[in-house]
Amino acid sequence: MADRNRKPLPRDFFARPVLEVAPDLLGRILVRTTDDGPIELRLTEVEAYAGRIDPGSHAYRGRTERNAVMFGPPGHAYVYFTYGMWHCLNMVCEEEGTAGGVLLRAGEVLDGHEQARRRRPTARKDSELAKGPARLATALAVDRALNGTDVCGDDPGAPLRILEGTPVPAERVSAGPRTGVGGEGALHPWRYWITGDPSVSPYRAHQPRRRKRALDAGATEV
After folding, report:
1. Are 90 and 77 in contact (CB under 8 A)?
2. In degrees, to the nearest 5, what angle opens at C-alpha 104 toward C-alphas 100 and 108?
3. Residue 72: CA atoms inside 13 Å, Cβ hemisphere, count?
4. What is the rounded distance in angstroms from the CA atom of residue 221 to the CA atom of residue 79?
5. Is 138 helix (H, G, I), strand (E, B) or coil?
6. pLDDT tens digits, 104-148
7. What is an example of a Pfam family matching this protein (predicted)?
């Protein structure tokens, strides 16, 4: 990958309407640095959540202790814990004070495969290591300790960064309803993915909430 593609995305990239940021994140490189070294992942699937105007968003009813990061500066991580089992990683978008988030649903692991395999031993092949939001967070050792982390810094040792990578041309991007979202937000075509990429997770319509769900349970609501 060319050096120019290794630059961190600037904060103004995220300080835009969430429906612009979400598809533009496809092809970007998420770097997670752990005590075992870095893991790099190419983003292949995301979902947009539009804050106060979106019934599917955690921020729909306003600011709470849980979602406070979504109302802060853009370019930070919002990590939440769901179903008592899984973490999900999101990027805060929009101008400060206007909540918006992009759920990182899936990606292709480019580097750090051994780390990811240790955390995801049930994955049958590499394309399944981060195939779904809970799997992505598990493979990258993401938990609530990373909530609020700035992803726009220049420090190569930072716990989370997003690099420029190679943006995906519009003709290779598909869009459709968000996985697991019900109610008024069920039909918004705010899920974006790289067409035909094997790491993209399958679409699942909304189901009544149950405590025991598959790994993809973390897909609903940001």
Report:
1. yes
2. 155
3. 15
4. 12
5. helix
6. 999 999 999 999 999 999 999 999 999 999 999 999 999 999 999
7. Pur_DNA_glyco
